[in-house]
């Protein structure tokens, strides 16, 4: 499996795939072989195969946080928001304290304009990891889209307290403040 990781890093994808399949033959019950294979497929934009590999990883280890998170993120990037939500919720059955899964659900609900459900999941993510600036930043974006500008400003400010060097965050806050003064 380690050779597969090296080959993947060198962008020798066919060789990496062979290495991962060899590793799987010898270690059928080792979830990280499937996880790394999924990452290879993600790298070469074979999303269905990536999801299949990560699904196999979660079957072997239902608490494989990164596999659940990657599946939710890929569905989200493909604009399959309902699938992203379903996968993240399935992951939460095994990892009820995983903030990243709540965050994934919150983002997907936001993209579906289901603002109240999104806010509920941002709150859960933040309760689990209150020092994660990205959670507040995205929560600010949600409130901004929702038209709750005071709450958006509050979230942007909290995110900036945690990560004062984030340029996109500063831009969002400036844009919001201009909108509020119009």
TrEMBL record:
<dbReference type="Pfam" id="PF13424">
    <property type="entry name" value="TPR_12"/>
</dbReference>
<feature type="repeat" description="TPR">
    <location>
        <begin position="133"/>
        <end position="166"/>
    </location>
</feature>
<protein>
    <submittedName>
        <fullName>Uncharacterized protein</fullName>
    </submittedName>
</protein>
<dbReference type="GO" id="GO:0000030">
    <property type="term" value="F:mannosyltransferase activity"/>
</dbReference>
<dbReference type="InterPro" id="IPR011990">
    <property type="entry name" value="TPR-like_helical_dom_sf"/>
</dbReference>
<keyword id="KW-0802">TPR repeat</keyword>
<dbReference type="GO" id="GO:0035269">
    <property type="term" value="P:protein O-linked glycosylation via mannose"/>
</dbReference>
<dbReference type="GO" id="GO:0005783">
    <property type="term" value="C:endoplasmic reticulum"/>
</dbReference>
<dbReference type="Pfam" id="PF13181">
    <property type="entry name" value="TPR_8"/>
</dbReference>
<dbReference type="InterPro" id="IPR052346">
    <property type="entry name" value="O-mannosyl-transferase_TMTC"/>
</dbReference>
<feature type="repeat" description="TPR">
    <location>
        <begin position="99"/>
        <end position="132"/>
    </location>
</feature>
<dbReference type="InterPro" id="IPR019734">
    <property type="entry name" value="TPR_rpt"/>
</dbReference>
<dbReference type="Pfam" id="PF00515">
    <property type="entry name" value="TPR_1"/>
</dbReference>
<keyword id="KW-0677">Repeat</keyword>
<feature type="repeat" description="TPR">
    <location>
        <begin position="31"/>
        <end position="64"/>
    </location>
</feature>
<dbReference type="GO" id="GO:0030968">
    <property type="term" value="P:endoplasmic reticulum unfolded protein response"/>
</dbReference>
């Amino acid at each position: 499996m380690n050779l597969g990781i090296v080959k993947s890093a060198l962008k020798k994808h066919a060789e990496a795939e062979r290495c991962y399949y060899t590793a799987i033959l010898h270690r059928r019950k080792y979830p990280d072989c499937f996880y790394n294979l999924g990452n290879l497929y993600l790298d070469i934009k074979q999303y269905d195969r990536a999801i299949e590999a990560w699904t196999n990883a979660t079957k072997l280890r239902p608490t494989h946080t990164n596999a659940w998170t990657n599946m939710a993120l890929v569905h989200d990037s493909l604009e399959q928001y309902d699938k992203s939500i379903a996968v993240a919720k399935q992951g939460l059955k095994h990892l009820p304290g995983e903030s990243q899964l709540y965050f994934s659900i919150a983002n997907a609900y936001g993209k579906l304009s289901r603002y109240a459900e999104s806010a509920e999941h941002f709150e859960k993510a933040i309760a689990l990891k209150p020092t994660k600036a990205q959670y507040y930043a995205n929560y600010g974006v949600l409130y901004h889209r929702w038209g709750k500008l005071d709450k958006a400003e509050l979230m942007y400010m909290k995110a900036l307290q945690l990560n004062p060097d984030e340029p996109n965050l500063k831009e969002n806050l400036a844009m919001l403040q201009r909108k509020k003064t119009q």
